[in-house]
Amino acid sequence: MLRARCRIKRRPCLARKLWPAILTLFYLLLVAPCAHSDPLILNEGEISYRATDNALMLLDPESSLTIEDVLTPHWEQRFEEIKGIPIIHGFSDRAYWLKMEVENRQKIPRNWYLQFTNSIIDYVTLFTRNPRGGYSAQRSGDLIPFSQRPMRMGKITFPIDLPVQCRTVAYIRIETKGSMQFEFNVFSNEALLETERDRQLLYGIFFGIVAGIFLYTLFYFLPVRETINLYFAAYVAASFMFLFSHYSLSGEYFWPEYPAWTNLADHVFASLMCFTGMLYPKKLLQLDRYMPIMARVFNITMGASLVVMIWPFFLPYWTGEKLLSLLGFVSAPAVLYASGYLWFVKNLSSARYLLTAWTVLLLGLIIFLLTVNGYLPHNLFTDYCIQIGLMLQVILLSLAQADRLSTLKNEIAELLEERSKELHQVSEELSQKYTKSRLDDETLERFAAKLIAHMDEEKPYRDGNITLSSISKTLSVPSNYLSQVLNIKLHKNFYSFINEYRLNEFKRRLQNPENSSKGILDIAYDSGFNSKSSFNVTFKKYENTTPSEYRRRITAKKST
After folding, report:
1. Distance CA 199, CA 266 (A)
2. Residues 109/188, Cβ–Cβ less than 8 Å
3. Residue 28 banded pLDDT, cuts 50, 70, 90
4. Residue 265 to residue 242: CA distance in whole angstroms
């Protein structure tokens, strides 16, 4: 019995002795492999590398670690392998450290650069070895003014010293209030220039098309004066500025020394894009008329967009971003449902374009999410799918706008035709009444002579604002009697009668040597014409030539 108890007591002692060995074995088998990552090898002839998979990651729980802390064994062994291309950790108030080992096997010295694909990270610090054996720091990010960045570029870029036939270790500290995206590349000088050239070309094409549509919409608004054109222009402008800010182009070109506003501009323009993206479809689809309940949903979403727009100015940034994402998930289905319903049920043609446009944009967003999470390969299409989707959406929306204007034009034409028929009927009725009250020939002759004498002697046609009513008062003849004189006796309407006198006055003045230094339009205004178009139409009608050609003929005759 005693021996049994002794044996029972010895077992914990043995386990206590073996426990450190078990933990070490567990670490070697499970933890240690997870903390290992192959170095980035720069092979001969290659000039660009996707470096994310060659890095290890460390979470800084208090955002207080320094490079000296990270180099200690306690924190070195806590680095973990990054799985996925790239890792997106959402919104976090903690800092992250990345460790990347680089081996340069190339024989030709080159300038190398490390560049992040995400350009809206608040702070990024790169630590590289210096000749003294320590680490030197370079700091960049969208909260750093452009004049203080290592490279004055839209994307976060660092020059990195990688001597040939040498191996080095670099550390990167990342801290941001926005989305954590760890994807970065290593480029040689040639590859960086080529990448930037292609990027600038694609941005030029995309933003050029969007800016052209915006200017065309504003240009079309001037003669039409329809507010829906302004709503569409506002959505195009908000989309333009959102992507311009999202890719740090606004911070690079518009306000390079105001990083605090650059950091908020992305959120503000995204909120405006959501607001105008609901306002324009609401007016285009006439939801207040066809779907009043859905119109209220649109109104609530637009109001929430304005609240979310000013949210980061007073409350935590990440909550505003989450609310904005929520609004995006509400607004897009609402627009798709409303446009789909009105297309299939009400046969509204503009809804067809709207449904297609928003579907294209959503497909671009889905492809973008699948790409950044590693489900789709990176290529020219997947890397720029949002720009492509938004550009196609804006083009399709412009077609919807054109279709609406065409429909409106047809409706106006039909309305004018109906009104024309009504006016024709009224005209016939007035004509019958007019025939019954017609003046006799002797009275018509007398009034005609009185009118012509007044025109020849007083020259009232030189007044650009002359009317039939004003002449009626001057001659003390009722205006309807003067209308009969013009139509029955002189076979002209009032404005043709007046413009003939003005034209003859113009030709007399043109032949006067005193007016040889005057311009044609000045002489026309002196003759009574009150607009250039009216003068040109009248002159072309009676003289079958242009005023300039007519003047040249007169000058040629005088010279001969």
Report:
1. 20
2. no
3. very low
4. 8
Token pair 């010279």: residue: 559
CA distances from 35 to 69, 184, 206, 373 (A): 18, 19, 42, 21
Q: Measuring CA to CA, which residue among 162, 174, 54 is closest to residue 116?
A: 174
- Answer whether 0.85 is exceeded by the pTM: no
CA 476 remoteness from chain centre: 63
Partnered with residue 102 across adjacent β-strands are 40, 168
If you ran DSSP here, which 8-state letter would residue 177 be given? S
361 CB-contact burial (10 Å; exposed 0-12 / middle 13-18 / buried 19+):
buried
Helix ranges restricted to H, 258-316:
259-284, 287-290, 292-314
82/102 Cα distance (integer angstroms): 16
- Who's near 491: CB < 8 A, 6+ residues apart? none
Q: Give residues with Cβ within 8 angstroms of 266, minimum separation 6.
A: 120, 242, 245, 246
Residue 45, both tokens: 């002839």
Segment (H or E) for 376? none
Closest among 326, 324, 399, 335 to 361, alpha carbons compared: 335
d(CA 160, CA 164): 13
3-state secondary structure of 169: strand
For residue 352, what is the enclosing H or E element? helix 349-372
Tokens of 335: 């627009």
CA–CA separation, 430 and 551 (whole Å): 44
Query: How far is Cα 541 from Cα 138, in angstroms, rounded to an integer?
Result: 77
Please, what's the largest Cα pairwise distance for the chain?
155
Going by C-alpha positions, the residue among 175, 176, 172 that lies closest to residue 158 is 172
Distance CA 384, CA 378 (A): 10
* For residue 86, cis peptide bond before it (omega within 30 degrees of 0): yes
Would you say 404 and 348 are in contact if contact means Cβ atoms under 8 Å apart?
no
Of 265, 284, 331, the closest CA to residue 303 belongs to: 331
**b/e per residue, 27-52, with b = 16+ CB within 10 A?**
eeeeeeeebebeebebeeeebbbebb
Cα–Cα distance for residue pair 67/171, rounded to 1 Å: 8
Using DSSP's 3-state secondary structure scheme, residue 557 falls into helix
SS3 422: helix
- At 64, the amino acid letter reads S
32, pLDDT greater than 50? no
In Å, what is the CA distance from 214 to each residue of 46, 231, 271, 358?
Answer: 42, 11, 19, 18
pLDDT one-digit tens code per residue, 367-418? 876 765 557 776 667 777 777 888 888 888 878 777 777 766 666 666 666 6
